[in-house]
Amino acid sequence: MVSYKFGLWSLILLLPLFLTGCGGHPAAGTWQIQDGSASRYARLVVQFDGKAEFFRGNEEEPAERCFWAGESADSITLQCVDAANGEERHYRLKVSKGGRGELMQDGRLLGMLDELE
Q1: What mean pLDDT value characterizes the chain?
Q2: Domain 25-116 belongs to what topology?
Q3: Cβ-contact 112, 102 below 8 angstroms
Q4: From CA 85, how far away is CA 34, in angstroms rounded?
């Protein structure tokens, strides 16, 4: 009986550690693409559930819809489809400390991004 109580209390005390270990990827969030970038988009919304969307200007509807996957602890790959013509595109978003990001396509820098809070 004593070992059962000890095991139950250990589980209760350790449970928060297991739950907090499941944090989101640092790329998840809303990103504003800096002016002067080669990208044709104004912002990128990366959702926690593996979906993302590119938006032009102040438009409400996304210009591209994407699925993303973690490539490393600080970067994701995005597989996107243009909403207008169905063309498929691939991107890479690398994030750094301080809420900055680099959007790449085929090894070419498209633009610098700032994470919005």
Answers
A1: 84
A2: Lipocalin (2.40.128)
A3: yes
A4: 25
